[in-house]
Amino acid sequence: MLTTNQELKRLIDELWNKLWSGGISNPLTAIEQITYLIFIRKLDEDESLFEGIYPEIKDIERERFKKGEEDKEKRVPKSELRWRNFSKLKNRDEKLTLFRDFVFPFIKELNGEHSRFTHAMSDAVFVISNASVLDDAIKTIDALYVEIEKDAKEHSFQDIQGDVYEMLLNQLSQAGKNGQFRTPRHIIELVTKLVDPKKDDKIGDPACGTGGFLLGAYQHITKNRKTKVKNPKLHGYDIDVTMVRLGLMNLIMHGIDDPQIENMDTLSKEFNQEENDTYDVILANPPFTGSLNKEEIDTTLLLKKNNNSTKTELLFIERIHKMLKKDGTAGIIIPQGVLFGAGQAFVKAREIMIEQSQLKAVISMPSGVFQPYAGVTTAILIFTKGSTTKDVFFYNMENDGYSLDVKRAKIEQSDIGDIIEKYKDKKFKGDNTKKAFFVSKEKIIENDYDLSFNSYYEEEYIPVNYREPNVILEDLQVLEDSIQSELKEIKSLF
Fold this sequence. Notes:
Layout lengths: L5 H16 L5 H19 L1 H7 L7 E5 L7 E5 L5 H4 L5 H17 L7 H6 L9 H21 L5 H14 L14 H11 L7 E3 L6 H11 L11 E5 L2 H13 L6 E4 L15 E6 L17 H4 L6 H12 E12 L1 H4 L3 H12 L1 E9 L12 E8 L5 E6 L3 E3 L7 E5 L1 H9 L11 E5 H6 L22 H24 L2
Parallel strand pairs: 3-4, 3-6, 4-5, 6-7, 8-10
Antiparallel strand pairs: 1-2, 7-9, 8-9, 10-13, 11-12
């Protein structure tokens, strides 16, 4: 939808430019501030949610000082904190004061004193200090919602609103720092469809960022349901508190009332070991090259204890395996180096998925999937804890439906539908001269647990039938005679 609505794109760019001109040049800070505004606008737009969150809206009042009357306390109805009311204030300075001192502190305590949302928001700061910048941003967000309402005639209002937020997240030019890359929505949908989480599953992501995989699981579960799924069992963790805030607001804006995302390094000693063996599904794209304090790494992780590994892409494989209950399934994205790395820790990580799990699928993806953030080559791994690996499904994705350069323009070629179809087809056997085939566990073990596609792919030999040399020479002579004859005719004309 957003690829065709140029007005939405223009308004989003305008938002960024307004904050930039107001002195907010850090992209992560800008997206956080914009998110606060959209979040507050969203609360007012959704009447049922609003009344549920503010049950005493007509009775409770807040105190504030009015300019010039600092010695007198003025009481203001809480209803003035609603977007539809404070956004219409003519005095920009009064609007900034009301927002900064009352509206923003109010949303920080939105879900109650003991909620994860309130805890995550405890250190949040509203940094827009210019009254005209705030006023302009509010007007631009209102214009965004006008456009959303226009497109809502053909698309789900919530989906379009989510698209707007996704587009804002796309602007995170700092993505890629410490190996963190935002996962494209269509890749999240692919992994989710392959794992196929169910309504009552406990679903987790140990490095959830802005909550993309948790949201993808929720949307997958609710896609064919006419009623809202209440209290979905979604649990996320992230080491960056800003990402936790963005993730919480992202899930709330997509209809999840009380999301469970915690600020936690799940590779550290602080991680609650009671979370082990409890998850039905793990969906994750953990950071690839994060820097870790060796002293803080959880010593129950054997890849650290026995192999002295500090590579996050390996440690997260073990962490995810530990979090899964027996017969629980993981769908994770890893750098392709994990598939064939020769170091002892690399081999042990692959052993965990093959010997202590049923490794179901290895899907290699092209390097452009994470453009414009990076050209890193990645793969999707699907494994089920406690089951026995037999034959592993391999697929070499060549196209994901978008160009593989920094523009990531939509194209017609895509292997995604074919991947899902072949993976779920019980009769499919494959051919290792094609892009999809199966490899036996025994063959993988013989190959030192190598999981790279090219280790098992065979170039298809297509014999070429050439004509006999004497026939070719005769044809060449006929051609030569014809050329000489034509040259003589041309010379006769002069």
